[in-house]
Q: What sequence folds into this?
């Protein structure tokens, strides 16, 4: 496996695209904008799914499954939501192909198999789910409904990039129904906290929690909570969103309930989701010019053992030692692969595991056998050390925690040094172009100003931070009064 | 929760439909032929997925994900496969909706957003996957490829039934590529064995392993292996299939490799799948007129504890005992729910858990507290017994194994007494109408005879059993020579 990876400094975007393919994470498919997620990439996604699923269940949610298709009449019911997604949705119009009389051996759409009502391939499932909840909810006793769905969705994006923006992607979407506004808001906030906790503890990505401005809000939401991360090129990435939907969908689908005072009211809603886009965030936050760097908590293989040998006898002895270490690691809850392929030389194996981001490599050669030692190599720091054979499992176990924390700390330092407070528009533009990162600036609260800044600089308001101090000031663009600083950035 | 379940004797089909809905497993959606899988039903499917996924990984497979859409030109490449699915596929023709100028507030398909090439929503993924494998395979060193995908698929069935036949369903599809014919056949057989093992050990459903006749084979397969189960109404249900695809897809997509002798050859293929249809098999095999009966190995809740009390003080004391039992069960690996809802009376709870098939119910009342006993009720036999409080967890743990085995044995006895050897067509028709079940009969091996028997009786050849003794004889219909008995049945 030859690397030849473009460096980040040379071309960050090219580096990313190459890395995703060379590390065997995903590739483009024969279908415009749709990706193939390869086994190694999917194994990382599976680990993410498992952890998130556990966190959803611990917060009282259950999984269910709703149809892939949304009939057009349901799709258009919530006006803003429909408006937001109509321009980029795949539409099923027919249910049969037939032999093409003009092209023997080819098929064509059967004109007689036209659907009476077109079906939209779900870009998100509020419409189909709220048309279902209508039948499930009569009284406050039927509430709350706390459901999550793992599914594929389709948004016909024109410019796509592996994991970051694809026409089809995998995600989870939570859809909850509540008797009170306060409970729904608390749910939306809780799930944004869950996302932040997951991003920081498992992905080792520091995130800023905030709410979106009106123009960046989910189509149909009253409030969109989000977690925002910063990539190594100084661009922001929205890693997860949680929406308080108010009564918008309940009104669109006429979902009323009898409250505990016997009065009819519309149901309150939330929805929240993260997607395979997280893979893009994971890759861009930690990886380097040698390839992928994975936090141990999400690495499909945490430790790899590579034997270095000249003959079969040596391989046999090394194998015994390797299997002992592997078993010791397993007992300590650390996953380990003994890479005993005879088709590849150690150098090629080193390069592959480095490219694929295995957190820790153990190399064992004949000299190690004599000295009862092994060589440890950390992927994150690229440092090596010789350690005692009988201590290697314990040391490796400890390093899993250390690497996880070190990656988070490194990302946090980078993020923190790339939040810059600016107080005038000249500085704003300069920081954006030179230092990059988040810009903390006063804003007058209007969509007009937001739009103008975007047109002039390509920077958008990533969020109004939830934990920001409420310092008043003057808008960095108009000079009009501002009730607090918001975070601007160029974004993925 | 009121039952009012139609009895099986009255109308088996109606009983099934009602049970699926009343036990909160699934329901029909606003989209023709598509179902909503409700949380309780989905929890059972999740348990199935977890066990199957483990078995796939233990046999060396990895998960991956391929696009939902198949461009028409790829779809039509393998002629037989295309022919088999063309008549029932959902076709995406447009990628945008726009405001309907004639109907304010409504949307219509944007005629200018017509796709150059139509996209078929995958009814199965051989085409998209083999067009991808083409780029992954050059040499025998790239083989085997052992990949599985968990996904949704769409087949535009005209007559649908919850779980058994739906326009969209969830499934897993394995797609493997091999250097030799023998290896591919061994893989197809191995996965059929995995399905049989899963059906018998987890679903408690005895299955017959066999191969399909040409007319019942998967479109594009050289050989289709299958597991066939028998439902309580004497109809057969195909529970899983594993296909040896020969070089059909490699030829259709031009996937060649250099073998270890340096020669170019087409790659050998298999595919294999089970779907949410298994839910239908599970429900129909074990359930009774009181509702669902679940084997403990797949029950989302294995034991439920229901408190019987007259006042808060009693509930408090019972709660302490219940939580102790729950913790003891947890330590023994048995899942338990303490149903302490104050909104429902014990009778309503009993009825609900019976309807939903919880394998074991523990009831605790004031008298039990005095006597240090509890009441155990088995869902499968509907028998009750009083047991010592301090032994209940151990007894419950033992009952999980006993109920699992008992359900399998009951289903096996039923199945075995419903395989009837017949030697003439009058008997064939009589057994089919009166006793029902599998009919073991000689067949002359021609599709014509198979077709005629189907037209006359609605019975099809479910499989040519793999472990059948090779007894020669005369075809039950034509009298022509037969090389062995095959199994006929009416089928789902
Ligand atoms: Zn910098
Ligand atoms: Zn009978």
A:
């Amino acid at each position: 496996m030859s690397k030849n990876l473009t460096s980040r400094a040379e071309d960050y975007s090219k580096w990313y695209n190459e890395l995703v393919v060379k590390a065997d994470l995903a590739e483009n498919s024969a279908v415009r904008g749709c990706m193939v997620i390869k086994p190694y990439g999917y194994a990382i996604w599976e680990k993410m799914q498992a952890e998130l699923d556990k966190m959803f269940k611990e917060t009282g949610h259950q999984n269910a499954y709703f149809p892939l298709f949304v009939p057009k009449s349901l799709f258009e019911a919530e006006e803003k939501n429909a408006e937001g997604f109509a321009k980029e949705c795949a539409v099923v119009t027919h249910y049969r192909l037939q032999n093409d009389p003009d092209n023997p051996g080819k098929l064509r759409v059967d004109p007689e198999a036209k659907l009476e009502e077109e079906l939209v391939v779900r870009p998100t499932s509020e419409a189909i789910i709220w048309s279902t909840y209508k039948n499930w909810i009569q009284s406050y006793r039927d509430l709350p409904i706390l459901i999550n769905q793992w599914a594929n969705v389709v948004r016909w994006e024109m410019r796509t990039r592996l994991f970051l923006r694809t026409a089809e992607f995998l995600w989870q979407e939570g859809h909850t129904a509540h008797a009170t506004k306060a409970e729904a808001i608390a749910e939306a906030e809780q799930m944004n906290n869950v996302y932040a906790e997951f991003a920081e503890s498992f992905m080792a990505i520091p995130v800023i929690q905030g709410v979106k401005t009106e123009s960046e809000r989910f189509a149909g939401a009253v409030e969109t909570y989000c977690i925002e991360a910063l990539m190594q090129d100084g661009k922001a990435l929205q890693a997860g969103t949680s929406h308080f939907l108010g009564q918008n969908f309940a009104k669109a689908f006429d979902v009323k309930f009898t409250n505990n005072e016997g009065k009819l009211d519309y149901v309150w809603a939330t929805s929240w989701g993260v997607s395979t886009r997280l893979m893009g965030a994971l890759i861009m936050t930690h990886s380097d010019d040698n390839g992928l760097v994975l936090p141990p908590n999400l690495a499909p293989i945490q430790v790899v053992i590579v034997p270095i040998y000249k003959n079969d006898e040596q391989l046999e002895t090394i194998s015994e030692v390797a299997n002992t270490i592997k078993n010791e690691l397993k007992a300590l809850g650390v996953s380990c692969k003994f890479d005993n392929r005879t088709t590849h030389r150690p150098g090629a194996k080193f390069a592959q595991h480095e490219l694929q981001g295995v957190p820790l490599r153990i190399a064992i050669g004949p000299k190690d056998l004599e000295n009862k030692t092994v060589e440890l190599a950390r992927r994150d720091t690229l440092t090596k050390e010789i350690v005692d054979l009988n201590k290697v499992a314990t040391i490796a176990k400890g390093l899993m925690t250390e690497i996880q924390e070190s990656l988070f700390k490194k990302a946090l330092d980078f993020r923190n040094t790339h939040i810059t407070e600016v107080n005038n528009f000249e500085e704003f533009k300069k920081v954006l172009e030179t230092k990059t990162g988040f810009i903390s600036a006063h804003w007058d609260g209007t969509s007009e100003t937001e739009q103008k800044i975007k047109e002039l600089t390509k920077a958008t308001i990533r969020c109004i931070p939830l934990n920001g101090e409420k310092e008043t000031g003057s808008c960095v663009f108009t000079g009009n009064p501002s009730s607090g600083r918001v975070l601007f950035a160029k974004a993925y």
About this structure: Chain A touches chain B through 61 residues (CB under 8 Å). Residues 301-402 of chain A form a domain with the Rossmann fold fold (CATH 3.40.50.800). The mean pLDDT of chain A is 97.
